[in-house]
Write a structure and sequence with these properties.
CATH architecture of the largest domain: 2-Layer Sandwich
Distance between the termini: 52 Å
Strand content: 25-35%
Number of helices: 7
CATH topology of the largest domain: Peptide Methionine Sulfoxide Reductase, Chain A
Order of helices and strands: EHEHEHEEEHEEHHHEEEEEEEEE
CATH superfamily of the largest domain: Peptide methionine sulphoxide reductase MsrA
Helix content: 10-25%
Largest sheet: 6 strands, mixed
Radius of gyration: 23 Å
Length: 309
């Protein structure tokens, strides 16, 4: 069994959310990482410094910490400071409070992944649990006792029997309908309509789904085809190729390796001086990271690509 403490706004909803999963053994609502004195709910509302927090005991053979944290990020706004939904105040701050340093690699992996997805520094603190005081009994399983109680988490997230469908809905919400259809169903955006068709700022392009690094602006050129074109990827390991015979054509489809996102196609009619390849990519499948923001967004190691450009 593992134990993690999660602060994510009002603890009523966060507790009910985690109670639904078979891998969760036990939950308890309480107040964490404030002064080392047990507060009342009224104290917390008067800014005692504690965060409304849910203790989650989990069976890591059924649900490991990475999966549990992926669900946590699904129901919080990771950029909000001292606020979730309509609840505002220091008690509603977000935080992952670990009980064992051996949990840190999993926490850091999910944290980095989420930060790359949003492209900004997260407002979620990661720190050891310093103290935890169980909340009053009437707060425990509050939404089971009071089904009409307020919660910032959508009610539909409390019945996630089909986890696949729920994850798909969350992805569509995060990246938008067009990007979802392109990356998940191999749709194609209309030519000359994409954000990055005629766009040549200095930086890199990553998978809109996973944040995986794909292309550099140094290898982008105007092919006139109506979609962003690149002569090569930053690393061929970042994508896979497969035969595509749809629409009566024979083409080579390109997908990202990490998330399996459909990106576009590759053709052998590119500039001969650059290898002769044309990676024809949907703008909707990409997110651009400007050179000036690469360090801040966690891509600093790729700045060396431009050292001689």
């Amino acid at each position: 069994m593992g134990t993690i403490y999660l602060a994510g706004g009002c603890f009523w909803g966060l507790q009910k959310f985690f109670d639904q999963f078979g891998g969760v053994i036990r939950t308890e609502a309480g107040y964490a990482n404030g002064p080392d004195t047990a507060p009342s709910y009224q104290d917390v509302c008067r800014n005692s410094g504690h965060a409304e927090t849910v203790r989650v005991d989990y069976d890591d053979k059924e649900m490991d910490l990475e999966e549990l944290l992926e669900y946590y990020f699904m129901v919080i706004d990771p950029l909000a400071v001292n606020r979730q939904g309509n609840d505002v105040g220091i008690q509603y701050r977000t935080g992952i409070y670990y009980t064992d340093e051996r949990q840190l690699p999993a926490i850091q992996k999910v944290f980095r992944m989420e930060q790359k997805k949003v492209g900004m520094t997260l407002a979620v603190s990661v720190e050891p649990i310093r103290n935890f005081f169980p909340a009053e009994e009437y707060h425990q399983k509050y939404l089971d006792k009071n089904p009409g109680g307020y919660c910032h988490i959508p009610r539909s997230f409390f019945s996630m029997e089909d986890r696949g469908e729920r994850k798909e809905a969350e992805l569509r919400k995060r990246i938008g309908d067009l990007a979802y259809e392109v990356t998940q169903h191999a749709a194609t955006e209309s030519p000359y309509t994409g954000e990055y068709d005629y766009f040549f700022e200095k930086g890199i392009y990553v998978d809109v789904v996973s944040g995986e690094v794909l292309f550099s602006s140094a290898d982008k050129y105007d092919s006139g085809c109506g979609w962003p074109a690149f002569t090569k990827p930053i690393s061929k390991d970042a994508m896979t190729e497969r035969l595509d015979v749809s629409h009566g054509m024979i083409r080579t489809e390109i997908r990202s390796s990490e998330a399996g996102s459909h990106l576009g196609h590759v053709f052998s009619d590119g500039p001969t001086e650059s290898g002769g390849m044309r990676y024809c990519i949907n703008s909707a499948a990409l997110r651009f990271i400007p050179y000036a923001e690469m360090e801040e967004q966690g891509y600093g190691e790729y700045k060396e690509l431009f050292s001689e450009k």
